[in-house]
Amino acid sequence: MNAETLLASKSSEIITTGPHVPLIEAALTLARRRIGALPVVDDCGEVVGLLTERDIVYRYAERGPQALQGDVASVMSRLIAVCGPRDMVSEIARRMTERQMRHMLIMEDGRMLGIVSIGDVVNSRVQAAERESRELKAYIAS
Questions:
Q1: pLDDT at 137
Q2: For the CBS domain, which residue ranges apply (predicted)?
Q3: What is the Cα–Cα distance from 21 to 28, expressed in whole angstroms?
Q4: Domain 3-141 in CATH 1.10.760.10
Q5: In whole angstroms, what is the distance from residue 128 CA to residue 130 CA?
Q6: Beta pairing class for 103-108 and 82-83
Q7: In 1-142, alpha helices (H)
Q8: What is the per-residue pLDDT for 51?
Q9: How far is CA 20 from CA 40, 41, 43, 62, in A?
């Protein structure tokens, strides 16, 4: 299974934010949409960062409530984990684990195709293991 297959099982809507959006507004978007990360896109449509729940929590822990008065650019991660649509899920899982990242952007030719979470990756691996188990049991039974 590859990243493209993972994306096919998700909504095609990519929810983004801008670097100059108030942080509290972006945090509300995360909460309302029940998502863990927002790709940050500039006025030209270029991905310039990723805002995660972790980014917000860490900044809040450092600075207290006033941290939420800044903008997205003041908190977002600028080092973004990226993979291509044909990258295998096992490779994506390895890279996410190594970098301790929970979200990865799927990009092709400079265009964002979507975002996958560690939950998406784990779910696909569990489904594959269950499918393999069923196939092996069917083979043994025949």
A1: 82
A2: 8-68, 76-133
A3: 11
A4: no
A5: 5
A6: parallel
A7: 3-8, 23-33, 53-63, 89-99, 118-141
A8: 97
A9: 10, 10, 10, 21
